[in-house]
Amino acid sequence: MIIRRKQPRPLGLDEPLRHESHRRPVTRRDFLAQGFVTGSATIIAPTLLGLLASNRARAALSSDIQALTSPANCNIQNGAGKVPFIAIDLAGGANIAGSNVYVGQDGNQMNFLSTAGYSKLGLPGSMIPATSTPGAFIDTSMGIAFHSDSAFLRGMQMRMSPEAMARVNGVIIAARSENDTQNNPHNPMYGIARAGARGSLVGLIGSQSSDSGGNSMSPAAMINAELRPTKVDRPTDATGLVDTGQLGTLLPSKADTVSVMESIARVSEFKLGRVSTGLPTSPVDEDAAAEKLVRCSYVKTAYQAENFGTVDVVNPRSTNDVLVGASTPASIFTTAEVTAEREFDKITSIAKLVVEGFAGAGTASMGGYDYHTGERATGEMRDLRAGQCMGACLEYAHRKGKPLMLYVFSDGSLSSNGAIDNSVGGRGKGQWTGDNQSTAASLILVYNPTGRPTVRRNQIGSYSAAGDVINSSSPAANAVNLLVETVILNYMALHGEEGNFQTLFPTTGLSTAQMDMVLALTRITP
């Protein structure tokens, strides 16, 4: 008797993933990775933010209060002069290497893998690059080499102008990480903040209520409770950061509100000079740190009352902005698109705050990337959407004339057994059939408004001809904590500050020689 197995069907863009080989989802991480949830939104702002004003008139800060906003004092400025940083956390174990961004042997994207190696990465023999046909299936429109039919690339092309793409370059990092777990210390947010990134409204933001702001955790040694990311995954979260409550209605004009805030700051400054917190001054001056925290909180409130008199300043759907509007390409997304697609609503909210410098860095976590469903179409659809989110961030930076570092990562990866999905959605590529951490990678993309960034190398670490990460090829290849340090080191290199890395991170696991191995980016002008 012949038993005919039911062929797997492509799933809907947001249809949950059910794997026979996986346990039933029980944790929030399980539900996110398999696409059962996309994340709810709540914003709990610090109490002092309730004092912000929302009125009509323009009021300038007094010179004494303005002086306290300087970098030497409270350092209140958009972006703090650093390159904006956005991390995209693809929860579940997405494909990045090969089918999306090329990986090669000996640290060289163009040192091609074997046909079997590309098959493991989801590419049939008819769609692989070949030395005999230079340029076949290769797209270098953004410096780094993508597969010409990469779903990431196609998504970015939907949202980016050729002018923006001409000012991008990137690095792919061969790096294993555990499959299907939030315990990979993938997220670099706290290290990016330690390197100097901060916003005029909030330090860090993330789309999840977690210590990292995303699905994967941050390295424990880097976590700073004072900088825990504020949850932002929709426009109301962004505008909630400057929601004034009833304060704007209590005073007749914005000038009056700012004056009250300035007076409170002066009273605070006067009192701080005459009291002691009782905290020790040695070996660390905790007394001075506590006084600065109080002083700067009141100064920041006055600053925000003067600079954020309307929520449109931080609203991605503002009619004055180019993120969301009536049509594309006049706007990057249409109102209908962000209304229908939660991931677009999320990424525009985060991009608005980070690129404009209102937040120092942000994480957008996207669920449903555990897409080894025995076919290809589901993964292609989800990668296409992720690519649109990446492209939107880069295009927004382009239109605002701001640099941007984009970091894309996932918990583990997956592989193909070589069977082909010839459906329209499968595009004739290999079916994704199982988790495989040995095929994992992370991706850095950098936009520079003055021209394509120069990179030392487009690939860190190496793959074998068979399509597996070579664990000894770089410090980041088989240690996620060192992968995070690699990302932070390269972020600092964008500012010419890589020489300060070991001072800022004295417990780093990277030696000086290893730092040179994983350094790929060079200085650009923020």
How are the SSEs placed, and which strands pair?
Layout: H1 28-33, H2 63-68, E1 85-90, H3 115-120, E2 138-142, E3 144-147, H4 151-159, H5 162-165, E4 168-174, H6 189-194, E5 202-206, E6 230-231, H7 235-240, H8 247-250, H9 254-272, H10 286-307, E7 324-325, E8 333-334, H11 335-340, H12 342-355, E9 359-366, H13 377-400, E10 404-410, E11 414-421, E12 429-435, E13 441-447, E14 459-460, H14 480-493, H15 501-504, H16 512-518
Parallel strand pairs: 1-9, 1-10, 4-14, 5-6, 5-9, 7-8
Antiparallel strand pairs: 2-3, 4-13, 10-13, 11-12
Helix pairs in contact: 4-13, 9-10, 12-13
Can you give a write-up of this model?
With about 525 residues, the protein is α/β, with parallel strands linked by helices. It folds into two domains: about 80-240 and about 315-520; about 250-310. The chain is built from 16 helices and 14 strands. The strands form four sheets. The chain has an eight-stranded mixed sheet with strand order 6-5-9-1-10-13-4-14, sandwiched between helices. Strands 2-3 form a two-stranded antiparallel sheet. Helix 9 (about 255-270) runs antiparallel to helix 10 and helix 12 (about 340-355) runs parallel beside helix 13. The longest helix is centred in the C-terminal third of the chain and has 24 residues, at about 375-400. It starts with about 25 loop residues before the first helix and ends in an 8-residue tail after the last helix. The relative contact order is 0.21. The model is unreliable at about 40-60 (pLDDT under 50).
